[in-house]
């Protein structure tokens, strides 16, 4: 166990207020820091900064830094100064959580297992096929804005169920659903205001919408790191839908390693492009290709594969827990060596 533990000031303020994200994550933060040796510095890298707290902890000359990334993405790219400071002052730095290699495990798989409903197959089947695709977005990340713009330019809006947050400062209205869920625990994890798009992190959403749309277009939280997979990616797998994902560039590697069918024979492998713009065009090209398809026939053809994906989730939960236990063991034995997918 170590008493050398770093949380950023922003994260400290965040955990002052209960929500289902930080309530679960604090459990793993405590377990991991308790696994460390007394000379280790355990760093929760979420919203990390080179502040007085980090500087004072580093002055105590820890033997290792165990750098954790859980509910948010691994941020060595966007918080380079923070990570450069750690690497400069501590020789032995070990990344765990959303970092590729032997330290990898997914907080969001723990979250999905705990909080998602145990949907029966019948609940999430395509029942009233009306829309080719669904693409739900809350925050206006640039890849999401660009994708929705391309929907409009290619006249695909009428084929989809689409949402996107607005920008009040620029007088840009949000795109809301005609029918949506009204309550979700995820709202408590954000600065949610009445009338905004719900922060639905613990379900596939309104089942009326879900049962009317075929292809699920996932716009993940980030496209600039490598391994962040949030609850968004697991929704179509749990909910019996084929999917295309615009997100970090190794998501599909992990899904295949988990035994998930990624429908490469249907949609191709445009997700392999290092260019986010090219991946967006891959989505657009596929939606145009299937815009006049018979939704029922396509669904029926894919149905056995969709069921297999859904059932595979139980094995994935077991694998993630095994990965987590191995990370704890490796911290204790001081022998983490990097591996790459």
Tags for this entry?
341 residues, 4-stranded parallel sheet, disordered C terminus, Rossmann fold, alpha/beta, 41% helix, globular, single chain
Main β-sheet, in a few words? 4 strands, parallel
**Low-confidence parts lasting 5 or more residues at pLDDT below 50?**
335-341
Give the second-level CATH assignment, the architecture of the largest domain.
3-Layer(aba) Sandwich
Q: Provide the number of structural domains.
A: 2
What would CATH call the class of the largest domain?
Alpha Beta
Descriptive report:
This protein has 341 residues and is α/β, with parallel strands linked by helices. The protein has two domains: 5-99, no CATH class; 111-313, Rossmann fold (3-Layer(aba) Sandwich), CATH 3.40.50. The chain is 41% helix and 11% strand. It has 13 helices and eight strands. The chain has helices spanning 9-14, 20-35, 52-59, 80-89, 107-115, 121-124, 142-153, 207-210, 231-238, 251-257, 264-267, 276-289, 295-333; strands at residues 5-6, 40-44, 64-69, 92-97, 131-135, 160-162, 213-219, 243-246. The strands form two sheets. A four-stranded parallel sheet has the order 1-2-3-4, with helices on both faces. Helix 7 (142-153) packs parallel to helix 12. The longest helix is centred in the C-terminal third of the chain and has 39 residues, at 295-333. The protein is globular.
């Amino acid at each position: 166990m170590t008493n050398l533990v770093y949380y950023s000031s922003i994260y400290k303020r965040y955990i002052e207020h209960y929500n289902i994200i930080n309530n679960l994550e604090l459990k793993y933060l405590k377990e991991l820091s308790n696994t460390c040796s007394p000379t280790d510095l355990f760093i929760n890298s979420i919203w990390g900064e080179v502040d007085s707290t980090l500087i004072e902890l580093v002055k105590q000359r820890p033997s290792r830094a165990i750098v954790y990334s859980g509910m948010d993405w691994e941020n060595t790219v966007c918080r380079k100064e923070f990570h450069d400071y750690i690497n400069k002052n501590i020789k032995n730095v070990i990344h765990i959580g959303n970092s590729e290699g032997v330290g990898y495990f997914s907080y969001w798989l723990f979250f999905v297992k705990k909080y998602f409903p145990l949907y029966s197959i019948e609940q999430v089947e395509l029942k009233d096929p009306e829309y080719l695709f669904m693409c739900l977005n809350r925050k206006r990340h640039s890849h999401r804005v660009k994708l929705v713009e391309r929907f409009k330019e290619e006249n695909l809006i009428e084929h989809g169920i689409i949402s996107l947050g607005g920008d009040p400062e620029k007088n840009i209205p949000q795109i809301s659903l005609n029918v949506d869920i009204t309550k979700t625990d995820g709202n408590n994890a954000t600065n949610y205001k009445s009338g905004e798009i719900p922060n639905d992190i613990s379900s596939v959403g309104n089942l009326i919408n879900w049962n009317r749309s075929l292809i699920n277009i996932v716009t993940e939280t980030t496209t600039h790191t490598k391994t962040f997979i949030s609850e968004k990616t697991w929704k179509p797998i749990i909910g019996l839908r084929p999917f295309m994902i615009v997100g970090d560039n190794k998501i599909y590697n992990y899904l295949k390693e988990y035994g998930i069918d990624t429908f490469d024979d249907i949609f191709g492998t445009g997700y392999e492009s290092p260019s986010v713009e090219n991946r967006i065009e891959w989505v657009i090209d596929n939606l145009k290709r299937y815009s006049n398809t018979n939704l029922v026939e396509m669904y029926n053809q894919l149905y056995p594969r969709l069921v297999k994906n859904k059932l595979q989730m139980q094995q994935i939960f077991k694998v993630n827990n095994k990965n987590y236990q191995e990370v704890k063991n490796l911290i204790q034995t001081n022998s983490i060596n990097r591996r790459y997918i």
